[in-house]
Structure formats: C-alpha cells, structure tokens
Design a protein that fits this description.
By secondary structure, the chain is of the alpha/beta class. It has helices at 9-17, 26-38, 55-64, 83-91, 108-111, 127-139, 165-170, 176-182, 199-213, 223-231, 237-251, 259-262, 264-294, 297-314, 319-326, 330-339, 367-376; strands spanning 3-4, 45-49, 73-77, 92-93, 105-106, 116-120, 141-143, 150-152, 156-161, 185-189, 220-221, 256-257, 360-361, 381-384, 389-392. The relative contact order is 0.14. The structure holds adenosine-5'-triphosphate (ATP).
Length: 393
C-alpha cells in the first residue's frame, strides 16, 4: 500500500473526506441517527466497539458534523504512549521539567483547542492519568508538567474503548467518576458479524476505493464470493474486510472477484492455528519475564524483539494476526513493533513508522502544516491510506 506525503493541505482534505461512512444495516442506521443527534451537542462521547469496527472513523464523523469542524481533530492512542510520557504528551511540559525536556512543549489538549480530541483505548490509561484527565474535564484547563499555571482549554473529548469499561470499573482498574464523565453519550458499534447488512455495501465501497487506486475500476464480486463474504465471521471487523477486498483486487485475474481471490478459508484456518499457539507464547512470555527479572534485565527486551520479529514474519507481516498469535491487542503489537524498529520504511503492507514514539495523529487537514510540524517539531507528515492516519516524523 502506498504512502503519500501531503505537501498541500487541500490534497489531504480531499483524501480524508473520501473516507465515507457506510452504514446500511438497519442497526447501523439507528446508530447513525444517534450519531447525528449527538454530534452537534458539546457532549463528551464514548464509542464502544471491537477493534476495526470504525470507532475512529465515527469520531471523525462526529467532529465533521459539529460546530468544531473547522478546528483540529487529534486522535491519540492511549496504549501507544508509555506511562512516563503520556502526561507530557497530553498536557505538555515546561522546559527543564524533566531530563530531556529541552524546550517548552504544548500538549495534545492544547493543540486540539477549538476542535476535538479522540482518545482511543481509554481503558489503557494508567490510573494516575485517569485522575488528571478527570480534573481536566471538570476544570476545563490543563497544567503542563513542571508548571503551576493552568491554561484554559476549549476541547471536546471523544473516547473509545474495545473493552467493557463497566467491568474495568468493577475490577477497580478504571475510575468510576471518570467513567460517568466520559459515558455521557455512549455509541455502541456492533461487530460486523452482527450487522451483516453492512457487509456487501462496505465491500462495494472498498472495491470502488481500491479499484480506482489500483487501476481496475468496475471490478465486481461473483455471487459465490458474495455468499462467502456474508458467511465469514469477520473477527477483525471492517479493517479485515477492507484488507480482504484490497488483497482480492491485487490477485484477481479479471474484473470479477471469486471466492478464491478472497482467501477467506486461509484466514479462518490461520486464526484457528494461532488460537492454539497463543497459549504457548503466553507461557513462554511469563517464564522469560521471571528469568530476566532475576538474571539479565536487558535479555527480556532482546527476546521480546526476537519473538515479535518471528511472529510478525510468521503472520506474513499482519499486525492483527501477530496480535492474536501473541495474545496482545493490535495496538500494543503495533506500538511494540514501532518501539523495536521492526516496521521498516517502504514496507508495502504497513505504515511508515520511524518516529521513536508512535504518535498516531489524525489531523483535521487545515491544521496539519500550521500546527503539527511547527508545534511538535515534526519535519514531515505522512498520510497512510491504509489506516487513514497521519504519522509525524
Ligand atoms: N462504516 C464504515 N464505512 C467505511 N469504512 C469504514 C467504516 N467503518 C470502518 N471503516 C474503515 O475500516 C478501517 C478501520 O476503522 P477504524 O480505524 O475507525 O476502526 P477502530 O474501531 O478505530 O479500530 P481500532 O480499535 O483498531 O483502533 C478504517 O480503514 C476505516 O476507514
């Protein structure tokens, strides 16, 4: 999949707006009505759904339908940031606040002023940060690390989770008061297998998008392939469907996609194999941790890298499958692949990840060249067609 570096914001605007929301199943249409009602309000929203169900796309849609549409839309993946850095990333820091803080830096909340901030995987937010986030939401101001001065912020928060936050609250892992603050407007995105009326419209949508990009517009899906799409369980949801269609267009011999082009049986048998292998990896992981804690603290990092490399190679460089194989979430895998510099530049399947920190920022087009490179010190912004995300380097 190609990467485009957008020199010009208008070009990126077009690309981002092209990511239309396809909602045809009656259950999805109900949700769309709710989204349209929630969007113009200033309410915080909580989007709940399995990985790949479209949480970020819905958050972006809410932003576009709100009065804040001209402001920035910043998407931050909570689990891609290490616990030590998350506070300064979200709220900024003063020069000299800690080793390495060589300049004063604005945090994401300030950068999103006048717009929307999307906190993905909110359930992974460390407890210490949950208290601080609650304070920010209550007081509507942030205090940079190393400062005593509060800066007012004008930001709408949309959070997302793929775990049941109620259970995390019951287990004491997530603050109840923060949960109620976030859960003002809850939007449940059903897994694709529970809204089968979306499958073929989405397949047609991706066929059109990728068909044009790959120079084979007008490609259709055979009746048998449609049937296969309708009966597949889609554990990776819409992201998986998108990848399947993209792949099918690459391998199809003519302008009709057949069941063989979809390669769904391989995906299923593979997911069964990895289910049984995951247990072994978990066992190995825990033995290694104990061993390394006792003997060689740096050995664990080396072994983790080797494991990640092996799993990533074994799965044909598929992040979701690697996550399943290792018993981790896709975001954790992605973050660790980046930290370990395993995602190489020019990799055809993945985004380009050179930043030492995975800064997953999806940005409202207008603000990209003005806010991000200048304020965040990025030299280059790269837009990934695959994930519809921008990456700063
Ligand atoms: N209703 C939809 N219509 C069109 N495309 C969609 C829809 N929902 C999701 N997609 C596409 O599917 C892919 C995954 O969506 P997205 O990243 O928003 O999911 P997510 O739930 O945020 O995933 P994760 O939990 O892994 O972060 C994206 O390429 C997105 O554009």
């Amino acid at each position: 999949m190609s990467l485009l570096a957008f020199a010009n914001p208008a070009e990126m605007a077009l690309s981002i707006r092209a990511s239309a929301l396809v909602f045809e199943d009656p259950k999805s249409r109900e949700l769309l009505d709710r989204i349209k009602r929630v969007a113009p309000s200033e309410l915080n929203a909580l989007i709940i759904g399995e990985t790949g169900t479209g949480k970020e796309l819905v958050a972006r849609h809410i932003h576009e339908l709100s009065a804040r549409r001209k402001g920035p839309f910043l998407a931050v993946n909570c689990c891609a940031l290490s616990e030590t850095l998350i506070e300064s990333e979200l709220f900024g820091h003063e020069k000299g606040a800690f080793t390495g803080a060589v300049t004063t830096k604005q945090g994401w909340f300030e950068a999103a002023s006048g717009g929307t901030i999307f906190l993905d995987e909110i359930g992974d937010l460390p407890q210490s940060m949950q208290v601080k986030l609650l304070r920010v939401l209550q007081e509507r101001e942030v205090v940079r690390v190393g400062s005593h001065k509060a800066t007012p912020i004008d930001v709408r928060l949309i959070a997302a989770t793929n775990v049941k936050l109620e259970e995390a609250v019951m287990a004491g892992r997530f603050r109840e008061d923060l949960y109620y603050r976030l859960n003002v407007a809850a939007l449940n995105l059903l897994p694709l297998r529970q809204r089968t009326g979306d499958i073929l419209p989405l397949a047609r949508h991706f066929l059109k998008v990728y068909g044009q990009r790959l120079g084979c517009p007008g490609t259709t899906i055979s009746p048998a392939a449609k049937q296969a799409l309708l009966t597949h369980p889609w554990p990776g949801n819409i992201r998986e469907l998108e990848n399947v269609i993209h792949h099918a267009l690459l391998v199809a011999r003519d302008l009709t996609i057949t069941p063989t082009d979809l390669n769904l049986s391989q995906a299923l048998s593979f997911s069964k194999t990895v289910d049984s292998e995951a247990g072994d990896f978990e066992k190995l992981d825990s033995i290694l941790q104990t061993l390394c804690e006792q003997e060689h603290p740096d050995l664990y990092a080396r072994v983790e890298r080797a494991l990640l490399q092996a799993a990533y190679k074994h799965t044909g460089r598929n992040q979701l499958a690697t996550a399943r194989l290792l018993g981790l979430s896709r975001h954790v895998v992605r973050a660790r692949l980046i930290q370990n510099h395993i995602l190489a530049s020019g990799d055809a399947e993945t985004e380009k990840h050179h930043s030492p920190l995975p800064k997953s920022i999806s940005i409202s087009p207008i603000t990209v060249p003005e806010v991000i490179p200048k304020e965040r010190g990025y030299k280059e912004i790269v837009f990934s067609e695959a994930s519809q995300e921008c990456w700063g380097f």
